[in-house]
Specification:
It contains 22 helices and 27 strands. It starts with a strand and ends in a 9-residue tail after the last strand. Helices cover about 45% and strands about 25% of the residues. It folds into six domains: about 130 residues, Rossmann fold; about 100 residues, PAS domain (Beta-Lactamase), CATH 3.30.450.20; about 120 residues, 2-Layer Sandwich (Beta-Lactamase); about 120 residues, PAS domain (Beta-Lactamase); about 90 residues, Orthogonal Bundle (Helix Hairpins), CATH 1.10.287.130; about 160 residues, Histidine kinase-like ATPase, C-terminal domain (Heat Shock Protein 90), CATH 3.30.565. The strands form six sheets. The protein has a five-stranded parallel β-sheet, with helices on both faces. The protein has a five-stranded antiparallel β-sheet with strand order 7-6-10-9-8, with helices on both faces. The C terminus is likely disordered. The chain is elongated and about 190 Å long. It has about 750 residues and is an alpha+beta fold. Helix 2 packs parallel to helix 3, helix 19 packs parallel to helix 20 and helix 20 runs antiparallel to helix 22.
Length: about 750
């Protein structure tokens, strides 16, 4: 047992010892003595006494002050005044001030009795306070429960609501009880007779149970209320008050109405649909719509006495049972699958069955949608029989449904495409598309088929291994007895080899035609180039024989020489072209100054340009450029380009320019020849570098030439590893730029 904590307020040490001695007779205690207010406050907080004994009067402190502090800080601690003498008035004042008892020091033998008494009283007081606290808490919990109850609780008389919780105010859209009473609870009924009926039941039975009534809120919102109440009556049977609670069941009633509507809608739909609908559990059929009874030949009453398995073909029962079991066990199974049913008259019907679950009349059940596919099955069987007839056909045969999904292909299809039947079943023929067939071909194909007509044409498709192939296809719709399209059949012939041969023939034809054109151009040009100088040589040589004039003979000799040079140049060019084409030309590597070679050509052609009143200029950023190369190749190529520029420019200017560039880390010396001549059309620009090609050919052409100059120049430049660019527009002149890669012998000087 723990020791009693006693706080003693006493300034006389002898009296303190007497108190402790007397207390020790009956109690085990621990005591602390103080004599000032400051120490009293400190020990009251720290020591936590269970009993206070205080002298009435002290020099610095008093018992009444200590009592005041006790009342303020710890009112439940018993407080006994212990004093030397006290009159009756002082004693009464102490008791009134809150002292538990008082004892005079002359009669200390009474101290222990007083202590026992006040401790017992204090224990009773604590128990009473705890009981009151518990009661208060219970009332608060009950009040909180009622206030937050999900049902509306109320107490009322026949004309006034005495109490209601928040739920009542929430249901009927009131802000407070006064607002509810001002409105009048009787005005909340949709029908005044409902309130009278409620009161009649309450008075006759003393209570009302599950009373469903239509009401409305203060703002007119319609409600459905379920109410329970009991009446409190006096001895004469007069109703004093009503206590009850109500529940807003509007949502539930609306939901039930919707459910009834859904059920009616379900029956309307199922009884008027062409699909067979059945609802069943493990024991029997629960529902079958008219389409189902029509399919099976049983009435709905007959089916309700049967098990679901009774109408399934014996060979398919295990499949259906296993599939259903796996679905119940949450395994992944198809939502729909196919099996056979047995009708009442023993007929076998193939069906496509889609299964699901629902609550039917409060029970978890299965629901099945059944589509009769017997005709489709028979049609597929028929297709399979037909496939046997075409299996050995050299043509690829494909049959699809209306959506284009493949249902059948023959062996020839596999040989051509690489796809086996199992790989393409259910697939779309689009897997064969290469993307190279023009879009309008596919569009025309479907437009033709949708009109019920047969389409014929070529397709560019792709085999399984990615190889492109050509096929000639005949695709036709398959119609049933009523003329309705049910499928499509395609028969395709692999014409890849034929297309290849046709292409090769076309290429050969083009080459032959090009050869003929080249031969014609060659003959026309060479004929002109050979005849013209030969005519000059023969004609002037005949005249010389008749002339005695030395000057005339000298002039004609000049023409003979010029014609001979032209003839020799033509023959040289033909020989050069032949050597280049045959690969027998040997490229030399010799030191040369590219700028000097270009300047020599400029000076050589300047006189001819001046004869035509042309301005001819030479521009270079390099004084010389030493390099290793074939002087004949470079000079001949440059001279052909410059000669052409002068020849085909009738007025204006011919500009020669040279410069150096670096492209892709490779160094080039560039020669640009720009003229204001007749230019070259876009069409002729593509062939101007071909052998014997000119903008005009034959005897009627305007400009002389054998059509070999640009071709020879281009081949010369390419022989050096360089290339040539042409920029030209007919009537606006041309720009030829020659790029020759160089390996410098010495650094250029400027």
């Amino acid at each position: 047992m723990s020791k009693l904590h006693i706080l003693i307020v006493e300034d006389n040490s002898a009296d303190d010892k007497l108190l402790r001695y007397e207390l020790s007779r009956d109690f085990e205690f621990t005591a602390v003595t103080v004599e000032t207010e400051k120490d009293f406050l400190k020990k009251l907080s720290e020591f936590k006494p269970e009993l206070i004994l205080s002298d009435y009067s002290m020099p610095e402190f008093s018992g009444m002050r200590a009592l005041e502090i006790r009342n303020e800080k710890a009112a439940l601690i018993p407080f006994i005044i212990v004093t030397g003498s006290v009159n009756e008035e002082v004693a009464v004042n102490c008791i009134k001030a809150g002292a538990s008892d008082y004892v005079t020091k002359e009669h200390l033998m009474r101290l222990n009795i007083a202590v026992k008494h006040v401790l017992e009283q204090q224990k009773i007081l604590v128990q009473k306070l705890e009981a009151e606290e518990n009661l208060f808490r219970s009332l608060e919990r009950f009040k909180t429960f009622v206030e937050n109850d999900i049902s509306g609780d109320y107490i009322e008389t026949e004309d006034t609501v005495l109490y209601c919780n928040k739920k009542i105010l929430e249901i009927f859209e009131f802000d407070n009880l006064g607002q509810l009473n001002n409105h009048g609870s009787h005005n909340l009924y949709e029908n005044a007779d409902d309130q009278k009926r409620f009161m009649d039941v309450l008075i006759s039975k003393g209570k009302v149970e599950d009373f469903e009534v239509r009401m409305h809120t203060r703002n007119g919102k319609k409600l459905v209320i379920l109410e329970n109440a009991y009446g409190e009556f006096d001895n004469e049977g007069k109703l004093l008050q009503i206590q009850g609670y109500l529940i807003d069941i509007t949502k539930r009633v609306v939901a039930e109405d919707r459910l009834r509507h859904s059920e009616n809608l379900f029956r309307t739909l199922t009884e008027n649909t062409s699909a067979s609908i059945v609802i069943y559990n493990k024991e029997r059929f629960l529902y079958a719509n008219p389409a189902a009874t029509s399919l099976l030949g049983y009435s709905e009453d007959e089916l309700k006495k049967m098990h679901f398995w009774d109408v399934i073909h014996p060979l398919d029962r295990e499949l259906v049972k296993e599939t259903g079991k796996r679905r119940i066990d949450k395994h992944k199974v198809p939502k729909n699958y196919q099996f056979r049913l047995l009708t009442k008259n023993g007929e076998i019907r193939w069906v496509d069955f889609t299964a699901g679950y629902l609550q039917f009349e409060g029970e978890a059940t299965g629901i099945g949608s059944v589509h009769d596919i017997t005709k489709e099955k028979l049609a597929i069987d028929e297709i399979r029989m037909l496939s046997a007839a075409v299996e050995q056909s050299p043509l690829s045969v494909m049959i699809t449904d209306l959506e284009g999904n493949i249902e059948y292909v023959n062996d020839s299809f596999t040989e051509v495409t690489g796809y086996r039947l199992q790989e393409v079943l259910g697939q779309n023929p689009g897997i064969l598309q290469s993307g190279q067939t023009a879009k309008h071909v596919h569009k025309n194909l479907w437009n033709t088929l949708l009109k019920g007509k047969t389409w014929r044409g070529e397709l560019i498709n792709k085999r399984k291994n990615g190889e492109i192939y050509y096929e000639y296809a005949v695709i036709a719709p398959i119609k049933d007895d009523q003329g309705v399209i049910s499928r499509y059949i395609g028969m395709e012939e692999d014409i890849t080899r034929r297309k290849k041969l046709e292409h090769e023939l076309e290429v050969a034809k083009i080459k032959a035609e090009d050869g003929n054109r080249l031969k014609s151009a060659f003959l026309a040009n060479i004929s002109h180039e050979l005849r013209t100088p030969l005519n000059g040589i023969l004609g002037f040589s005949e005249l010389i024989q008749e002339l005695n004039d030395v000057d005339a003979i000298r002039e004609m000799s000049h023409y003979i020489n010029e014609s001979g040079q032209r003839l020799l140049r033509t023959l040289d060019m033909i020989i050069a072209i032949s050597r280049l084409d045959s690969g027998t030309y040997e490229v030399k590597k010799e030191a040369l100054d590219a700028i000097t070679e270009f300047r020599i050509i400029y000076e050589k052609k300047l006189r001819k340009a001046e004869e035509k009143n042309l301005v001819m200029t030479f521009e270079t950023s390099l004084e010389r450029f030493d390099m290793l190369g074939d002087r004949t190749i470079i000079s001949s190529a440059l001279e052909e380009i410059v000669d052409n520029a002068v020849k085909f420019t009738n007025e204006g200017k011919v500009s020669l320019k040279t410069f150096k560039i670096t492209d892709d880390d490779k160094e080039y010396i560039c020669f640009e020849v720009k003229d204001t001549g007749i230019g070259i059309s876009e069409e002729n620009s593509k062939s101007i570098f071909d052998d014997f090609q000119q903008a005009s050919t034959g005897y009627g052409r305007k400009y002389e030439g054998n059509g070999l100059g640009l071709s020879l120049a281009k081949k010369y430049i390419e022989l050096t590893g360089g290339y040539m660019k042409l920029e030209s527009k007919e009537g606006y002149g041309s720009v030829f730029t020659i790029y020759i890669p160089v390996k410098q012998k010495n650094k250029e000087t400027s």
